[in-house]
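Thread: "does anyone have the structure for this chain?"

Original post by V.I.:
We have the sequence but no experimental structure in hand. Need at least a predicted one for the grant figures.
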Amino acid sequence: MPNPPYRRRVSRSAVATLGAAGLVALGAAPAAVGDEAPPSLVLGDIKPITGVKPGSPVDLPVTVVNKGTTTVEKVWIKYTATRGLAFPEVPSNCQKQYVGAYDEMPERWIAICAFDQAVKPGVAYTPQKPFAVKAEKHAFDDEMWVTVTDYEPSPDENSTPFPGTAPEIELVESPTGGTGSTDRFRVPVTSVNTADYEVTGAALRGKTGDTVTMKVTFTNTGPGWVWSKPGTPWTSVLVTLPAGTSVVKPDFYCKAKGKVYNCGLTTRPQEHLETATFTFNLKIDKKVAGAKGSVALSNRKLPFDPDKANDTAPITVEVTGGKPGATGGTTGGPDGGSGSTGGSSGGSTGSTGSTGSTGGSSSAGGAGSATTGGALAATGSSSATLPIAGAAAAAVVAGAGTVLVVRRRRARHGS
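Reply from O.Q.:
Generated one for you, tokens below.
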């Protein structure tokens, strides 16, 4: 499934507020009491689906019952799935739509199927062939929503649907009958998977008085994605500075509590194979023998992450001789590239991480000082992954400080 090119952060406390609107967007929220008459078309119960193996099909039994007193001449069934699930074969009487993440909702697939046939009162119907659903390799803690209506549902306005190409399917009478009371179902789909959270530290170098750029990262190396929704174990990134250094400018999403900076995470890096980069401008105040800081997950008790060895990484600083600003240092990044700078004065500009984590802006170097970069240490290893749930959120755990920023809605038009 394609990945949207943008990121957003939101407070974990805002998730509940966003939840109702999100479920409406996904077609899963029930109408308020008194808003409308009970539906004549209902769905038979669909139980939660567990134990799914990534890469395998998902059995989604759907039964439509006409509980009204008149025949319904045409029926639509809408399927919505979160990013760990896919619709590999969509019938020609259905339209398929990819919708990128927006308004704190995860990216998803939507299919709307039209059945141009009469549905008699008191009779239960099932698709002659189950609608095809597949668990992707990054499937973990997903959800599907199934809705039945006697009118055509509107597609999501943020992308363009396209018709299916598989053979058309029809509704056939169910020999076993069926009962139901609601026209929509939320179906949890849990896959047997893991996710590996990994952090990298930094190796800094400079003279006393220098201002250096430090970049540390967080990555979910997968294979599972994690949707940051209520009930999902949460984590943020804790940055402890080496002794003898001080912060000139922290990353925008990192807030100090004592000597530790708590950095909130975007939704996207918790999904899989995306990185959040946190950029600090640090001043080397003095040389302290053996000084070492660290970057670590605030919550290491994550049941889906079996590899704890890469949950922490060191931050080191080498203080060189000579006068401040006499020579430059090296700047490193996640790609392993480095360069050198020199001169009597300079400034460094933090970069924006791949997840939209904005690095620190320029740090001013006065006369006789130079800015040096930090070489990013490659730490940790990739391991089996798992999805980690998400309304999008930046949160702080265990009482640490938090930056809560909700960005403007931006939707990516999918193909």
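V.I.: this helps a lot. Helices lie at 14-25.
O.Q.: and The first strand starts at residue 41 and ends at 44.
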